[in-house]
Structure formats: C-alpha cells, structure tokens
Automatic annotation (TrEMBL):
UniProt record similarity statement: Belongs to the transpeptidase family.
Lineage: Bacteria, Bacillati, Bacillota, Bacilli, Bacillales
Organism field: Edaphobacillus lindanitolerans
One MF term in the entry's GO annotations: serine-type D-Ala-D-Ala carboxypeptidase activity
The protein, known as: serine-type D-Ala-D-Ala carboxypeptidase
GO-annotated cellular components: plasma membrane
InterPro entries xrefs: Beta-lactam/transpept, Beta-lactam/transpept-like, PASTA_dom, PBP_dimer, PBP_dimer_sf, PCN-bd_Tpept
Region (Disordered): 682-725
PASTA domain span: 587-647
Gene3D superfamilies the record matches: 2.20.70.70, 3.30.70.2110, DD-peptidase/beta-lactamase superfamily (3.40.710.10), Penicillin-binding protein 2a (Domain 2) (3.90.1310.10)
UniProt entry keywords in alphabetical sequence: Membrane
Biased composition (Acidic residues): 714-725
C-alpha cells in the first residue's frame, strides 16, 4: 500500500512540477485560459456617418432598433420557481399566434421556428428580416404581451426620415453578414455606396476582468477603446426645394404615368445642386419601388435633348456674329445633300424672322444659322459648353455623352438636339453660362465632409468656374430671346409663364431612338422638356425638366405635364429663397378700371393701351356709353376691356376670348352671337371687321385651352419634330 500511494504521490507531484515549469495543460497555456475565463469584453458600436441637407437636417442617419429573439432552451429557466417568470418559451402555439400579428411571418412559419425547442442543441432562434430592425414602438407592443422567452437585442439601423427623397442620389445602406458571423451596415447604391468607407465608423470595445458572476475584480481597471463614428456628409440639397420637386413629380406620375422623368434645380451663380430627382424612384426606408434601374439618371443616363439644345446653337451664332433676329428665312423644310429636315409644322409659317423662328422652335431656322456660322465652328462652341465630356461633378459613374461630329448632316441634326447625346447635368452646367453672364460653373452636390469625432472638415465643396464659353453680351441676348419664348404670342413656352416672376426658357420635344436605327412615333412616345431660368433679368435658379413618354389624354400636348412640374417648383423655390418678385409682375395686381361712361372713346383707348390693356370698341366711336368689366374691377395687363359707343357694330377677332367676354360683347353691341363648345374662342363664322346684317347670328366655336394649338396640321406649339426624313 505504501508503494502504491507513494507512487501516486510522486506522479501527482511530477504533474504539478511540470505545470508550474511549463505553464501549460494539454498543450494550452493556463494563463490564457484564466484570462479568458475572467476577462470580459463589450463592443462599443460606432455610428455610421450621417448624410445631411445644406441646413444640417438629416437625410440618412443611424437610429436605435431592436432584434426579436426567442429563447427555447429550458436551461434558461433553471432556478426559476415562479412559472409566470419563465425565461424560455413555454407555450409555442400562443406565442406563435401573438407574434404573427406583429411581425411579417405567418403563424405556421413562427411555430416551425419555435418547434426547434425539441432539439437540445438549439438555445435560441431569431426571426430573420421580419424580426430585425423593429422600432421602439413595435418593441413595446410585443413586450406588452408578456410572452415568456421573448427578448429583444438592441441594434442600430439606417433610417431615412424623408422617405422617397432624392433616392437615386442618396442610395441606401443595409446590414450584411460578414465572414466572421458579425453584421455590418454596408452602402448598396448612391452616395451610401460611393462614400461607404468614409461613412463607416470603427467599433470600440470595453475590456475588464470579472469574477464568475461578472463583477469587476478588485484591483483591476476597465480598458476602453472608444468607438470612432463615421464622417458626416453635408450636401448642397435644399430640403424644402427637394420636397417641392418630389411633390410635383408625384402628381405628374399619378396623372400621366410617364416612362421616366428627371428634374434638376441648380444655383447658376455657384453650381450648387439644390434638388435632384427622378421617376421611377423608391423609398430607401422600405425599398418599395426599387427596380433594376439603379442609375442616377441626372448624371449617368444620356438623352437626345431636343430643342433645348437650340439655346446653345443660338449662343454660338451670336458669338460668331451671324445672329440677325430681323432677317427672314423660308420656314417649313431645309435640304442638305439627300436629307430633308422639317419644322414641327411641316408647311411652316412662310417667311418669318429668325427671332420668330426661335420663338416657334423652328428646326429650319437652326439650319440656316448653322449655314451662316459653319458647322465646324458650331461644334467647337458646343465643346466649349462642355458637351461631349464629363462635368466632373462629385458623383460616381458620370456619362460623357456623344457629340455626333461625323459629318455635315449629323452636325445639322445636333443643332436642334437630335443625333447627339447629353446628360441632364451637362445641360444644367451649360445653362449656367447663359444665366451667369457667360461664366460656366461646375456643378457640385457635396458641401462638406466632416469628422464628427474631431470636428475637422475633411473635404469642402467650393464654386468652381469651368470657363467662359460666351461673352456677357451674348448671355444677355440669349436670355432676352429665351424670355420672348415665354412672353411672345408666337412662343412655344407661354404655358410656362409664372405669376410673380419672369421666365427665360426653351421647350423641347425630342424623338426617342427605338434601338433599331430609327425613332419611336406618336405623341405618347416622345421626350418633352423645358430648360427654364428665373427671374429672367438675373436668374437665381435653373430648373431643367424632362418627361419621357407620358400618357397624354386626348387633346393635351406634352408641355402640359412638364409645366406642372416646372411652374410650382420654380415659383415656390424662388419664394422660399426670398427672391423679390418682378416689379412689372407686382404692378399687375394694381390696375383698377375707372368709370369710362361719358368719356371720349379715343381718350379711353389711349389710356388703356398705355397700361397694357386691350380695348375693343363695339361701334364707330364717340363717347363711351357702356363698358365691360364694370368700373372698380381689377384687371391684369393684357386683359380685355369692351367699350360700347354709338354707330354700327363690327365683329372683332374673337380668338382666345373667354365665353364671358364674347357674351358681354354681344350684349353691348346688340349683335346676335351663338356660342358652341367650352373653353376659349377658336373660330367664328363671320370674319373680323364685318358687320352681320339682317339679324343673322354669328357662330363662335370654343375649345379647351389645351386644344387651341392642336390642329391636324400643327399638333401643338411643339408637338413633333422630325430630325430626318
């Protein structure tokens, strides 16, 4: 016995001696095992950087969320005597039924997860995407059910408080599982992806040594490695203006269901992008509406711009010294070699001035201007405007577009916006030269990138000149001509006139390539656009709108949906920026009619015309014996006043008159007039200047406003352009 116990003692002693000398057990270091047993580590989660608007309002930020967990193992309830306080799921059916009413999983799917309780190796289960990123409100609702075994783990999620808001620009980020099993928020598209490394923070940790129960051991200290939050990106976007854009686009989307739309709002003085959006779009919070198109179309999608390109053809002609607004040309068609191009009204308008040609958006007028300035010089000017190369905007994947400089015919079609391709952001950059006295500004969208940990600015956006493609005098002339497109009776842009601000602009109707070497046809298969600046004398904003293939109801033309975006966006944005309305627009509200009865008609006519009001006399002259509207009525410049005088009544030209004005004329003149239709006067059975005798009625036909410029010969002000024939 002595030998046996003595041998065991020496064996045990040898083992102790070995462990003491080597510090290892079964090849594992004891110190490390002890450290692992008593050392605790908590992860300090870093915040992903915020994306903010120009005023510091959040567009994307991290927010607290909760992940739902069900504890299945009965071991979790060991030692708990009160059955109402069990820490594991005790009633699977009840739990599944209750949870199915709060998360996006069915009763059967939840029950299948909970039935894993029969596997002793399963301690807990999660509920996939349906149980992740729950809001604080949803967490409280589930907590109030008092379901045993249902717990919540705090987490962070990416939050987009504005919903559908510049979504293709901002993009989105979401959780991804890493190789080590941890999850990380990763940018998937837009700025979230481009600046993922800058936005991503670095988690910290808190290390300490504890006893078996987790309490800090005496004589030890916590070691804290603080989290480093990601950098914040502040944009040039104005949240209010962006919302104006989103709201207007939503209305047009609902009413016309276009294939796609894009809008850019920019400050021409600095190049700052104040709003940028497109349709179709999506809600980055819910991913609703997210399609296969992840392109930011303002920057990455090229189009044939149509007649908005004529702005830069005009500017080139002025720079070359060949613009003569009062010279005349034969409109309708123009032939070069074996190619004939046409105006949107194929028959043309006869011999018209170049100024009228621009107002009417004549393709032929551009052809004759190109002939005067030579096509090589024209392409050189377009390159000066930045077409054919990237703007360098601080956004990824920018397209350069293609200037079709193959030959004379291609340069000809480019002069009116077909054949060559551009991006919307290129059009806006080029337009800054027109609005900014000849100086072209590089567009940018990032105001600054700031490290919130040190408050250090890592990157600062600044206005940057891209050159002077035209002189200040040329820019002023182009602005004046563009303003006449909106103010002239012959202009295609009358529908874009604003209530309180003057507008310089250019409409566009472009054919869309069909992918087979030709173009799509029909009013519902065109691109409609408008490039507008306001106020016209010193533009503070540029708004560029494109609407592709809207579903137009009978009688409407493409400028209508475009105007329903441009007008509210431009008008509301200028007021938001406290831009003073034009003085002449303000004066419109101050004209009040006097009582003209007993006053010589010639005197009244002269006075009204001086105020911009159109007088119409029913008789041969003399004193005024009646009037419409009555004295004390407020009237806008350009309005109509009917004066009753003695003598035989003659018919005026009723075109454009309201039904109320025509009936008032009938009452004051005593003539028999019959009205048919609704809207405004479009035609009359007796010619202006005639005096119907024998009591024969004059028939005046009325049409709705959207049909006044839509005839079989001329579908609209600018309904269809023919690049080639």
């Amino acid at each position: 016995m002595f030998c046996v116990y003595g041998g065991l003692f020496f064996l045990l002693f040898g083992r102790f001696l070995y462990i003491q000398v080597t510090g290892e057990v079964e090849g594992r270091p004891l110190a490390a095992m002890a450290q692992a047993k008593y050392e605790r580590e908590n992860v300090l989660s870093a915040d992903r950087g915020r994306i903010l608007d120009r005023d510091g309002q959040p567009i994307a930020e991290d927010t607290l969320s909760y992940n739902l967990v069900a504890i299945l193992s009965k071991k979790a309830s060991d030692g708990v005597k009160d059955k109402t306080k069990m820490r594991h799921v005790t009633d699977r059916e009840k739990t599944a039924k209750a949870l199915s009413e709060h998360i996006d999983l069915s009763y059967e799917e939840i029950l299948e997860l909970l039935n894993r309780q029969d596997n002793p190796d399963v301690y807990q289960v999660e509920f996939g995407s349906a149980g992740r990123n729950l809001s604080h409100e949803k967490m409280n609702q589930i907590k109030a059910l008092h379901l045993p075994g249902i717990q919540f783990v705090k987490d962070k999620k990416r939050f987009y408080p504005n919903g559908m808001f510049a979504s293709h620009l901002i993009g989105f980020a979401q959780k991804e599982t890493q190789k080590d099993g941890t999850t990380k928020t990763v940018g998937q598209m837009g700025l979230e992806k481009t600046f993922d490394e800058i936005l991503t923070g670095e988690n910290g940790k808190m290390e300490y040594e504890s006893d078996t129960w987790g309490f800090l051991l005496p004589g030890t200290e916590e070691k804290v490695t603080p989290a480093v939050d990601g950098s914040d990106i502040r944009l040039t976007l104005d949240k209010t203006i962006q919302n104006f854009v989103e709201d207007a686009m939503n209305r047009v989307q609902k009413e016309y269901s276009p294939e796609r739309m894009s809008v850019i709002v920019a400050d021409p003085k600095t190049g700052e992008i104040l709003a940028m959006s497109q349709r179709p779009s999506f809600n980055p919070e819910t991913k609703e509406g997210l399609s296969s198109n992840w392109l930011n179309e303002a920057v990455q999608y090229t189009i044939e711009p149509g007649s908005t390109m004529k702005v830069f053809t005009l500017a080139s002609a002025i720079e070359e010294g060949v613009w003569a607004p009062n010279d005349h040309f034969k409109s309708g068609s123009y032939t070069m070699h074996d190619t004939t191009i046409y105006d949107h009204k194929r028959a043309g308008w006869g011999y018209i001035s170049f100024l009228e040609g621009f107002q009417r958006s004549s393709n032929v007028s551009m052809a004759y201007l190109l002939e005067r300035m030579k096509d090589e010089a024209f392409i050189g000017h377009l390159r000066d405007f930045g077409f054919g190369e990237k703007t360098g905007i601080d956004l990824p994947g920018e397209a350069a577009g293609v200037l079709n400089d193959v030959g004379p015919v291609e340069r000809l079609t480019t002069s009116y916006g077909q054949g060559s391709t551009v991006t919307p952001i290129q059009m806006v950059q080029a337009a800054t030269a027109i609005a900014n006295g000849g100086t072209m500004m590089k567009p940018y969208v990032i105001e600054e990138i700031r490290d919130p940990n040190t408050d250090k600015v890592l990157r600062k956006g600044e206005p940057e000149e891209k050159g002077k493609p035209i002189s200040a005098e040329t820019a002023k002339t182009v602005l004046d001509v563009m303003e006449s497109v909106v103010t002239s009776e012959k202009g295609t842009g009358k529908i874009f006139d604003l209530e309180d601000y003057s507008v310089a602009g250019k409409t566009a109707t472009a054919q869309i390539p069909n992918g087979k070497g030709g173009w799509l046809h029909g009013t519902n298969n065109l691109l409609y656009g408008f490039l507008g600046m306001a106020p016209a004398d010193d533009p503070q904003l540029i708004v560029y709108v494109n609407v592709h293939r809207p579903k137009l109801p009978p009688g409407e033309y493409g400028a209508i949906p475009v105007s329903k975006i441009f007008k509210p966006v431009m008008e509301n944005s200028l007021k938001h920026l406290n831009i003073r309305p034009d003085e002449e627009k303000e004066a419109k509200e101050q004209i009040t009619l006097s009582d003209f009865e007993g006053t010589a008609a010639d005197t009244v006519i002269k006075d009204l015309e001086a105020k911009g009001i159109k007088p119409v006399v029913t008789g041969g002259g003399g004193e005024v014996t009646g009037q419409f509207p009555q004295s004390g009525t407020s009237i806008l410049p350009g309005g109509l006043v009917i004066l009753k005088t003695e003598g035989e009544s003659v018919l005026p030209d009723f075109t454009g008159w309201s039904k109320r004005s025509v009936l008032a004329f009938a009452s004051l003149s005593g003539l028999t007039i019959e009205v048919h239709g609704e809207g405004f006067a479009a035609s009359q059975s007796a010619s202006p200047g005639s005096s119907p005798g024998g009591g024969a009625p004059t028939v005046v036909k009325f049409e709705k406003p959207d049909r006044l410029h839509a005839t079989p010969e001329e579908p609209s002000d600018e309904e269809e352009e023919y690049p080639l024939d």
